[in-house]
Specification:
globular; two-stranded antiparallel sheet; alpha/beta; single chain
Length: 284
């Protein structure tokens, strides 16, 4: 891992067949205040983090209107617009934040329309490249929520549709209504609950965006051993393992620190051996 890290070392991935990005992205949740609420404690640091992301070749940024709420999207628009030609910004709607610590599902079509239009304004975009339904709302038929995104896509406000926090059944229901180009579920070394979804994404060329991708990595003995061999951090090994786990995985580690951005991007250059990958895969 000599020299300045660059996200291109991870290779590229196609989103929806017409967007190509480096296969190491950035999750923009943690450029907000503590508890993902309000303004960041250090605004200059948050802006420096976003600039570092772009400088190191990361051209996929994932955010949501609920981060802040609205703070993450606004900072992205204020800091990075006008955007580099290759930058793809993905955002999400379908959660409301009535108070700190509250993440309430709201899949009503009228809420999703207002959320999408707010995201367009804050991000200074005419069309959102990838818009994801943040979470199914048990009070609203899933088809109605997805249908609202289809309408927004038909109006040119959304280019591609993705889903998040879904089961295979919910993914299939969404696919009956529209092409789905991405799935964003929780997945990391300690939480493999979406293994079957990843296998499906492999089969159908759907991008899988793992959230909480590096959580609990330091608790795993094979991860610590690989980190020692590669002179790397356990965070970097966790990301390298995700890149090796499936060609459809696009990791989106988040941070509010420019230094941590560089550390995460450096993971794109780590190549785990088959033995190392299998030892991590076989962990109990």
């Amino acid at each position: 891992m000599n020299g300045e890290p660059h996200a291109s070392a991870a290779g590229t991935i196609s989103i929806g067949g017409d967007l190509t990005v480096n296969r190491l992205g950035f999750g923009a949740m943690r450029i907000t205040g503590r508890g993902i609420w309000g303004e960041p404690a250090d605004l200059d640091q948050a802006r420096a983090t976003l600039r570092q992301v772009v400088d190191l070749g990361v051209n996929f940024i994932d955010t949501a209107d609920s981060y802040g709420p609205e703070v993450s999207e606004r900072l992205i628009g204020e800091t990075l617009h006008p955007y580099p030609d290759d930058l793809v910004i993905a955002t999400k709607g379908g959660l409301s934040r009535p108070a700190p610590g509250r993440w309430d599902a709201d899949g009503r079509p009228e809420h999703l329309r207002a959320a999408c239009e707010g995201s367009l304004r804050r991000l200074k975009l005419d069309t959102i490249p990838l818009y994801q339904l943040h979470r199914p709302d048990r009070r609203v038929p899933y088809a109605e929520s997805i249908g609202a995104l289809v309408e927004l896509k038909n109006e040119g406000k959304i280019r591609h549709i993705g889903v998040s926090n879904v089961s295979e059944r919910q993914l299939r229901e969404a696919q009956r209504l529209t092409p789905v180009v991405s799935v964003q579920n929780r997945y990391n070394l300690a939480d493999r609950g979406s293994d079957s979804i990843i296998d499906l994404c492999d089969q159908e060329d759907i991008v899988f965006l793992p959230w909480a991708p590096i959580q609990d990595a330091d608790r795993q003995v094979p991860v610590r051993a690989a980190a020692s061999r590669h002179d790397a951090s356990v965070r970097q090994i966790a990301l390298a393992w995700l890149l090796a786990r499936s060609r459809q995985i696009l990791p989106i580690p988040g941070t509010g620190s420019a230094d941590h951005v560089a550390e995460n991007v450096a993971a794109a250059s780590i190549r785990l051996s088959n033995d190392e990958s299998n030892a991590i895969l076989d962990m109990d």
